[in-house]
Design a protein that fits this description.
rod-shaped; single chain; 3 helices; alpha+beta
Amino acid sequence: MTTSFASRPFAVARRRGGFSLIELMIVVALIAILASIGWPNYQDYVRKTNRAAAKSFLTEVIQRQQQYMLDARSYADDLSTLGMTVPPDVSRHYTITEPFTIAASPPSVRVTAVAIGSQVPDGNLSLSSTGATTGRW
């Protein structure tokens, strides 16, 4: 005795393929929540990376200024005298102020990076040949 599929009393109904609107809306809501948490953290990470590049450049400028002071008995007024240019990863987010701020007594120099664009919330950075800093070091 063979039974056919049609004669079974508890036959499983076929479900239509795809996602329901509710399922799709739940996924969209979850993605929105994750993005709202992740995006500010990503922006902070980018600002920190840009700040680190600027700090590294300011430190290099001060080191070159110290060497120039030993050789010429004075500080250089600008980057070209030191044979330096602002790297692109710094110049996109900061403007290096020139001429440098030079103090006579005791002899010292201060280099400042002014934040521009998306880096403005992070603030300006400044480094002196005496080791004094301003901004978020």
